[in-house]
Predict the 3D structure of the following.
Amino acid sequence: MSKEAKARIKINKPLEQEDNMGNFQEKVSFIWDLADLLRGTYKRNEYQKVILPFIVLKRFDSVLSYSKHKVLKAYDRYKNQFDNLEYALNSASTDENGESLGFYNYSKYDFKTLLEDPETIEQNLNHYLDCFSIEVQDIFKNFKIRVQVKNLAEKNLLLLLMKKFSETKIDLHPDKVSNHEMGMIFEELIRKFSEQSNEEAGEHFTPREVVALMAKLVFLHNGNLKKKDIIRTIYDPACGTGGMLTAAKEYIKAVNKNSTVVLYGQEINEEIYAICKADMLMKGGESDKIMGPKSTLSDDVFSDLKFNYIISNPPYGTKWEQDADAVRKEAERGFEGRFGAGLPRINDGQLLFLQHMISKMKVNGEKSKIAVITNGSPLFTGDAGSGESNIRKWIFENDFIETIIALPNQLFFNTGINTYIWILTNEKPLVRKGKINLINATSFFKKMRRSLGKKRNYLSSGNIEKIVGLCNNFEKNEYCKIFDNEEFGYTKVIVERPLQLNYQVTEERFENLYSVKAFAKLAESKKKNIEEKLKEEKEGRKKQKEIINALKKIGNHLYKNWDKFEIKVKNTLKNFDLKPNFIKNIILVLSEHDASADYVLDGKGKKQHDSNLRDSEKISLGENIKKYFKKEVKPYYSDAWMDRKKDKVGYEINFTKYFYEYKPPRSLEKIEKDIKEVTSEIQELLKEEF
């Protein structure tokens, strides 16, 4: 392997917690201290709206400094000759190696010269912003930087902020702060800003070591990466600051430096989209393929494209009601659209993102692979027949899932709950077809010296290599289980039990009469005239009382046969001209379940079911349903039966079930010993106190 390739792989490895990353924390602290200028004038949740765009602006200014004179010279030379100066200015805007930067600024100002004229700094800064190339202007438009420039100027803070950036010894030039480190700085700042404003800190980015793990996993079993002149596309539908896209590209380049890797991303949050696009532009990537701020669920900006690799950490536990109309319209297209398998409940869109990503896999024999993070909900939420279960059913039956990995908890900045990495593909190796690999990596972590939000654990390089090895080896052991797809499927069978009731006329059961709608409506009136309304309601209450008095004549004898009691009730109420369903409901409210009573039969002599006793059984797809029912149900409920017309097939993955280890409780002797020891310690402490 070449030195360059080894270096690139080193970049792609997660940084261990012991690494200091040079003066990383010093840079973060300096930028964070800029918020002191805003304190009292701005609200806490507004800090990042000011600081983040100015960091990006300063970084652009640093990158452009080398060829600034050449750009100004080109502008002066060609401004009166051509209407479109794009080519000339881009050609002049280069780095130290003569490579085109892909963006420019033809203003005579920079951060240093802007400070030379404090009286007109607002006007000059706006002119400076106007002179950026179109893509950079789009970045600052999404930052809404002009709004902040105006606000800062009005509050006499603009000059102070610009001075702070210019006076510091911290240089944000890419030669001093790599794109990787700058990404980490952004992420740390976003986390800190979010904590200050009580927002979700990590919804826009993923810990770097998790990103590194996903990059390794998504490229497993892809030997063709070494082919000459290959072109690979990578897509993230919720790209955040772009960390996953960058890591995936670095991985491919480490394997094959001559490959062409094209990155595509979509982000809904304006500021995060702007950061991602700025980062891609400064890395020399095609920033025009980073799209936003738009919701992927309702507005797929890459609707005609399929991709080789898809890698993402979409939001979980987030409602999709703002996208609901567009999503439901898309679902109506069936599998011609993105959501043909079904729709999950409105409060969690993870399975929508999963369907969307699967729809982005290539077709016609071309291989695609997906690595996506979810919480536990997509694994098991939703019963058979629900939207969630139907989506899982479709995914399983198409054999898309290759591996699911349970990660350690407290790994992410904004949640301590269990998370999972799904690896999906449209072309499994032959040995893996029809099978799923479950990996329990919950114990593979190291404790952090200092928590970052809710992140208290991290994955070391050794942890990552162990997880990747388990995925690659595809062998059963204590951490790895291999199952056929059918193992996760089941038939939900409805089990009915017969209706058995006793019947009795008592004051207690009369109370239930008012739950019968027809009985309650007797004392209601729709008359608009108040006198007529009161009169009709009075007559209704009178009729209710008459019905109760008539029923009391039956006496309080306990009946155990529907037909016998029904005859009594009908004879008693024959003068009230009540409908059959009214009488049936009266009988039901005067009844209670009684296992010793006669079965209630319909007109054909068939047993009626008791909806209160209805139950269901989840029977594995590979199991004979009749045999299961005979073995597991009949011994306990001999008169039960199955309603097979209501069968539903569902799928779910219960990690706890497959990796559960029984731990026997401590013996009574040990518990008693511990109690005595604790009691003794308490007594000693009390003696010392008194």
Remarks:
- The longest helix spans residues 530-552.
